[in-house]
Each structure stands twice: as structure tokens, then as C-alpha cells.
Specification:
The complex is a heterodimer of chains A (379) and B (389). Chain A is α+β, with helices and mostly antiparallel strands. Chain A is built from 14 helices and 12 strands. Chain A has 2 domains: 172 residues, no CATH class; 172 residues, no CATH class. Chain A is elongated and about 95 Å long. Chain B has 389 residues and is an alpha+beta fold. Classes of the chains: A alpha+beta (379), B alpha+beta (389). Chains A and B meet through helix 2, helix 9 and helix 10 of A and helix 2, strand 5, strand 6, helix 9 and strand 15 of B.
């Protein structure tokens, strides 16, 4: 009889208990997967941000515009390689709940600024040719069934009226958490139809610098260039800009960590207690094993192995189930991209094994320390 | 014949270690459930309380948020003449307001958050009687002075009485702190609407919204009809309370979906834990149950006693969970409201209704975790169990 068969026999002894213990690991790790994906949805953009891009906004806040004439001036700041700009449109597709971000972009320069977004060349050319054309991210295209050639109608909120667009291109992301919910169209179309203040004013600039290590220096130079003008700027690396959004949501990270800690502390108690009961039930039997020549270490490993197998199977299934459910969350909460990566799955399984190992420690030690005489007296 | 309740209590006491584990797992679940929903309910309550049923908010047709709207002075004048508006010796109670979102560093993190800078008209005090100055004084129309909401004063750097804030090209002096009764206005900074437009190089006679005080809540529909029928206007008229309720929906929905999902999964985990402890406890009590049956207690009594034990443990767990989150009640936190793109301070609200929901959630977990083992105990063949003695 090998060690393996012994573990197998122990697991099968009370099938219901084994199943329930695995289910405890499963539900905890399922939750771990959800929380991990939530964390990624909130903070993923910060990690993905490009180190060579800066965002220039009005010092007052993002909602205040900047003169279009600044574009050329920014381009001449030493260290700047490329500049593009965009305006927030804020249109509504059918219902306010169907939110996705829409930008009126400077078409000639926008695509080169974001190499992570992939657009088939012929689609991009078609977009450039059509003044009413638009480019849609694949997540939004999938959500509403938009296809190249479709006509999309948005109701303007900042710019009143009904706005019609032709879908000319669909862009893809190259990384899992790339934001493919955006909708881009020509700023010329916006200026032409909306008129008013938007003529000659842009929402923000995006700048590429030659050397990411000197990004902060360039940012300071840009802000200094426009200091004491009616439109002062605030220039930040893309990462800091993205992070400022997330930070405004409050300390969600703390919330996620607290919930996670509660879940795993409970899991530790529950499984540790179950394992302790299992060992207590088998006191006599463990005594027999010892008389047969099993060492203390053997018994310690036997108990530990039993809980680790349950942690591996239960936890593994749990985190995989989370991976299967997570895409559905992106649909339930539009505007957030939920994704579970392989390293996150693996670290989840390792976490389950860690909790199992710790939970099994006390029961395993009590099995190892068992005195044969005392154990057998109870047979 | 029923098994005495004392038996159930004693038996829960005897196996206190596994039961304590069950209590902890249920308490954690209930705590997470109630605190997340308290977060959502506090957020909603703050926004809903901001609006008054007797006030109407007028903004340009098509704009979802106030800040997206634009109204000219001619439109404001037309609105002022509509029927149903409350009047006093100073004229109609109407506040045309201009709104700019400005980024200010938070005290806690030092990072910027968006605060709504609201330019109000001198009639604002009549339109929003629930807002009062608690320190300093009101701003003087025509002077670059601001008053700061009590939550904003706590949240942002440099908002103390007497300090100076730089917005646009202007230095504004903080002359007062106001209390708006825990509503969204408490997260705002107020100043003179005309000066606000000047400071931000905007046309002088442009506003974002007009808030009017009606003679009574019933006057709303005639007021709304008059404005929507007027060919000179293209506006949207909402009861202020409805506007704010709508602004709370996106964030509330997100917290509720995530909070319920997390609590639901934790609940399932707690049911598994409960089943495991009860089944294990049961196997040690085969003889005890058989003796009870032999003494004449029916299968149903056994079922009832075991179920009661599970519910007792769950109730203790539920109460412990509520006890853990109760101190959160009234705790102020803040988040960005995407619908207005500005930061909002609000307090956790553990309402009695939420507490009940949390408690029944715990009982539900106890029931689901206790019923199958209780069922098994009740159906045990007495003779075979006794033979094991």
C-alpha cells in the first residue's frame, strides 16, 4: 500500500465531508477570482499606461478646455516627439445606461499615438475619407452588434441634437485589459456641427516624449510654457493621470483586501476545524499506523497531503469557475473590463495550497505527536 | 412531543469549538453583506436628500447632468415668468446657477479630486432653505469670495476660513462654511455666479441650470407644462429630487451588484462550512439521537431540535456580524460620482431594514446548512443506531 492510496482511502472515507471541504475552498477561491478581476478592472489601466505618454489638461480640471493653438506650441517643447488631442463628446446611445466613452479626435495623429490599438489599414483609410465616420472598440462593437458600414445615432448631451455616424473601422487591443470600449470620430465633424466654444478648443492633449526617463522634466517644461496664461495646463504622465481617476473612487483597494482577508481567515478556521475533527475520529487508527512503523513525519505528511489535495482540487475548480464567470461581469457593469490572467489563476491556486497547508498544520502536528499507548487505549 | 429548547442550547454549548467556527464564518458574511449595502444606501440617501420635492431643476433639453447644460439669460428670464413659482417681496424664488468642476488636492491623499464650484444667485437661500451658514458669513455678491460645504471643508486642502483658493485667474477668499444637512451640496463650493463666469472666461450671461422654488409640490406639473409648451425654450424640467435620485443610480447599482455578489458567494461558503460542522457533529451523536428516539421523541422533534440548533448558531453569527458593522453607521467616506464627474462625501447608512436583511440572511444560511443534517438525524433507524452502543 503506497502513501497515495492511503490518502485516497482517507479522502473517500467520508465523501460528503471531503466534498464539502473542497467546496469551501472552491467558494473562497471563486471569490478570490472575482475580487482579483475587480482589482484589475479598477487598477489595470494604471499598470498598462505607457511611460512615454503625457496627458495635458486644463489646470482647473479635465472638464475645462484648452486652446487648439497650444498643440503647435507643445510640439516645440524640447523632448516632445508627437502631439494629438481629443474632446469628450458625452453622447447617449439609445439609453443612458448604454454608456461608452466617445472622443472627437484629431484623426491624422491619434492612431500613431496609441500603437496598442490595432486597426486594419483599409478600415482606417475609409475612416479618414468619411467626415462622419467613426472608429469603435471591439468591446463596444460586440456589446451593441455594431459592424463596419452600420449607421450609429447618438443623442448629444453637451452638444445638443441627434448625431449620425458611419462605422468605418473597429479597433482591437493587443493586451487583455486594453480599453476597447471607446468610440472615436473626427473633431472636424464636431466643430462643424456644434460650433460655439468648441471651435478652436480641445479637451486634452496627449504627448509622446522621446525619453520616458525625462518625462517629468518635459511635463514641467510644458506647464511652465503656459504658466500665467488664461489657460494654465497640468501635465502628467499617463500613469498618474489614469491613477487620479481611480484614486477619486476612494480606497477600493483597502475594501477588496479587507473582504479577501475575511474570506481567507474564515476558510482557514473552517478547514482547520474540519481537519482536526477528521484526525480526532481516527485517533485509534493513527495509533495502529504508528505501531506498524510509520514515523511521526509520515503521519504529519499524511494529514497535510490530505488537506492539500482538497485545497488543490477545490481551489483550482473555484478559481477556474471565476475565470468562466468574469467575462459576464464586464457585461453586467459596462465601462469596466474584467479579466483573469493565467498568473492570477496560478497565484490563486498557490494561495489555496498555502491556506490548506496552514490549516492542516495543527491537526497534522497532533497526529504526529500522538503517543501510541494513549491512542490505542481508545481502540 | 417537542424536545426541550434547553437541550438544544446545551448541545450547542458542548460543541463550542466547531460552532464558534460556524459563528465566525456567518458573522463575516453578514458583515460584508450589510457594510456593502450600507455603502450603497448611504450614497443614494445623500443624493436623494439633496433634492426637494418642492423644487424644480431646469436644464437644456438633452443634457443628462447639470454641468452639460447651457441656458442663456433670456431663457432664464422666460423661466422666471412661468406659473407656479414661489414669490416674496424680493421677487420670484429662482436661482440661476453656473457650474465649474475644479480639481483640488484632498487632505487625506494629497491627490486631486473634482469638486463642484457652484456659482449661485442671491436668491439661493430662499430656494434652498435647508442650507445654512455654520461658520463665518455668506459671500458678498460681486466679491471674489466663496463659502465651502462642510464635507468639502473637511475633504480638501486649503479650505479653512480665511484662506485663499485659486480657481481660474482669480484668488477667492473663503469667508464661510455651510451645512446642507448631509446632502450633495455639502461637497460643493459656492460663489457668485457672475464672478464665476468672469473668472473662467465664459460669456457673462450663461448658466448651467435654473432651480426654482414652487409654491407647492403640486405646482410642478403646471410649471413643467408651461415651460415645455413655450416655443422660446428647449428645456428639460425635473423635480429636483428626481434629478438627484437619477444621479445616484449608476454608482449605487455598481456597489449593490458587487456587494451582493460577494456576499452571496460568501454565503454559499458559509453554508458549506455549516453543513460540514453539523454533519461532523452528527456522526458523534448517533447514539444520543437514538436514545432520544427510544425515549419517545418523534422524528419531527429530532428534526426540529437540530434545525433549531443550526438557526441558533446562525442567529448568534448574524448578531455578531451586525455588531461588527454597526460602528460603521454614520462613518463618512467619499467617492467620485461618474454621473456628475465630481467627488461626493457620504456616510455609511446601516438602516434597520438593512440590519433585518442581514439577520435574515444569516438565518437563511443557518437553515440551508442545518436542514440536510437535521433531516438525516431524523431519519436514522433507531434500532441500528442503538446497537452501536
Amino acid at each position: 500500500m503506497t502513501f497515495g492510496t492511503l490518502i485516497w482511502a482517507n479522502l473517500r472515507r467520508r465523501k460528503l465531508r471531503t466534498l464539502l471541504t473542497m467546496a469551501s475552498f472552491g467558494s473562497a477561491l471563486f471569490l478570490y477570482g472575482i475580487l482579483r478581476a475587480l482589482h484589475g478592472a479598477l487598477y489595470g489601466g494604471v499598470e498598462l499606461a505607457s511611460a512615454s505618454r503625457l496627458v495635458v489638461i486644463n489646470r482647473v480640471s479635465l472638464t475645462q478646455p484648452l486652446p487648439q493653438a497650444y498643440g503647435e506650441k507643445i510640439r516645440r517643447v524640447p523632448g516632445v516627439v508627437a502631439v494629438t488631442s481629443a474632446n469628450w463628446f458625452g453622447g447617449v446611445y439609445q439609453d443612458e445606461r448604454n454608456f461608452f466613452p466617445q472622443f472627437a479626435i484629431e484623426a491624422e495623429t491619434y492612431r500613431d499615438m496609441y500603437p496598442e490599438f490595432v486597426i486594419p489599414d483599409e478600415q482606417w483609410q475609409a475612416f479618414l475619407r468619411d467626415r462622419q465616420g467613426c472608429v469603435i472598440g471591439e468591446a463596444t462593437a460586440r456589446r451593441f452588434g455594431f459592424q463596419v458600414g452600420d449607421r450609429v445615432v447618438l443623442r448629444g448631451t453637451i452638444f445638443p441634437g441627434t448625431w449620425e455616424f458611419n462605422v468605418r473601422a473597429i479597433y482591437r487591443g493587443t493586451r487583455d485589459l486594453d480599453d476597447t470600449t471607446q468610440f472615436w470620430f473626427h473633431r472636424e465633424y464636431l466643430e462643424e456641427r456644434a460650433g460655439g466654444w468648441v471651435r478652436g478648443m480641445v479637451g486634452w492633449y496627449v504627448v509622446r516624449v522621446a525619453d520616458p526617463d525625462r518625462a517629468l522634466e518635459v511635463a514641467r517644461a510644458i506647464d511652465a510654457r503656459f504658466a500665467n496664461s488664461p489657460w494654465e495646463t497640468k501635465t502628467e504622465p499617463e500613469q498618474a493621470f489614469t491613477a487620479s481617476f481611480v484614486k477619486q473612487m476612494g480606497n477600493v483597494q483597502f475594501l477588496i483586501l479587507t473582504v479577501g482577508a475575511v474570506v481567507f481567515a474564515t476558510l482557514l478556521l473552517v478547514t482547520g476545524n474540519t481537519m482536526a475533527m477528521a484526525v480526532r475520529e481516527r485517533t485509534g487508527e493513527l495509533g495502529v499506523l504508528k505501531t506498524l512503523g510509520f514515523t511521526d513525519t509520515n503521519l504529519l505528511l499524511l494529514v497535510e497531503a490530505e488537506i492539500l489535495v482538497q485545497a488543490l482540487i477545490g481551489g483550482g475548480l473555484g478559481v477556474l469557475a471565476a475565470g468562466a464567470v468574469v467575462p459576464g461581469l464586464s457585461r453586467a457593469i459596462p465601462g469596466m473590463i474584467f479579466h483573469l490572467s493565467l498568473p492570477e489563476v496560478v497565484s490563486g491556486v498557490l494561495l489555496a495550497l498555502g491556506v490548506g497547508g496552514v490549516a492542516g498544520l495543527l491537526p497534522a502536528l497532533s497526529a504526529a505527536r500522538l503517543s501510541v499507548a494513549a491512542a490505542l487505549r481508545r481502540v | 412531543m417537542g424536545i426541550p429548547v434547553l437541550y438544544t442550547i446545551r448541545s450547542a454549548q458542548v460543541r463550542w469549538v466547531p460552532n464558534l467556527v460556524a459563528v465566525v464564518s456567518i458573522a463575516g458574511t453578514v458583515a460584508v453583506f450589510v457594510s456593502m449595502l450600507a455603502l450603497a444606501s448611504g450614497f443614494r440617501a445623500t443624493l436623494v436628500a439633496s433634492g426637494s420635492a418642492q423644487n424644480a431643476l431646469v436644464r437644456r433639453a438633452g443634457s443628462t447632468a447639470e454641468v452639460e447644460s447651457v441656458l442663456t439669460i433670456e431663457e432664464v428670464r422666460t423661466i422666471q415668468d412661468a406659473p407656479g413659482i414661489a414669490r416674496d417681496d424680493q421677487g420670484p424664488q429662482v436661482s440661476p446657477e453656473a457650474l465649474v468642476i475644479v480639481a483640488r488636492p484632498l487632505r487625506q491623499t494629497g491627490t486631486d479630486a473634482n469638486v463642484q464650484l457652484r456659482g449661485v444667485s442671491p436668491r439661493v437661500w430662499a430656494v434652498r432653505p435647508n442650507v445654512r451658514i455654520v461658520a463665518g458669513r455668506a459671500f458678498t455678491p460681486g466679491l471674489p469670495e466663496v463659502i465651502v460645504g462642510k464635507h468639502a471643508a473637511r475633504a480638501y486642502q486649503g479650505t479653512e476660513l480665511g484662506s485663499t483658493l485659486r480657481f481660474g485667474g482669480t484668488a477667492w477668499k473663503v469667508v464661510g462654511i455651510f451645512d446642507a444637512g448631509g446632502t450633495a451640496f455639502d461637497s460643493e463650493i459656492w460663489c457668485d455666479a457672475v464672478l464665476l463666469n468672469q473668472a473662467f472666461q465664459r460669456p457673462a450671461q450663461i448658466f448651467q441650470s435654473v432651480t426654482v422654488r414652487l409654491v407647492s409640490p403640486d405646482a410642478f406639473s403646471s410649471f413643467k407644462d408651461a415651460l415645455t409648451a413655450d416655443p422660446r425654450l428647449r428645456v428639460q424640467v425635473d423635480r429636483e429630487i428626481d434629478y438627484y435620485r437619477k444621479n445616484s443610480q449608476a454608482v449605487t447599482r455598481m456597489i449593490e451588484i458587487l456587494g451582493t455578489l460577494v456576499a452571496f458567494i460568501m454565503g454559499i461558503g458559509a453554508v458549506f462550512a455549516g453543513l460540514n460542522t453539523m454533519y461532523s457533529a452528527l456522526s458523534a451523536r448517533v447514539r444520543e439521537v437514538a436514545v432520544l428516539r427510544a425515549l419517545g421523541f418523534g422524528a419531527l422533534s429530532v428534526l426540529g431540535a437540530f434545525l433549531l440548533e443550526a438557526l441558533l448558531i446562525a442567529a448568534i453569527g448574524g448578531l455578531a456580524g451586525l455588531f461588527l458593522v454597526l460602528p460603521l453607521n454614520g462613518w463618512t467616506t467619499s467617492t467620485i460620482n461618474w454621473q456628475t464627474f465630481s467627488h461626493l462625501s457620504f456616510a455609511f447608512r446601516v438602516t434597520p431594514r438593512l440590519a433585518f436583511e442581514g439577520f435574515f440572511f444569516a438565518l437563511g444560511i443557518g437553515f440551508l446548512g442545518g436542514l440536510p443534517p437535521a433531516w438525516r438525524a431524523a431519519r436514522w433507524p433507531v434500532a441500528r443506531a442503538l446497537r452501536e452502543l
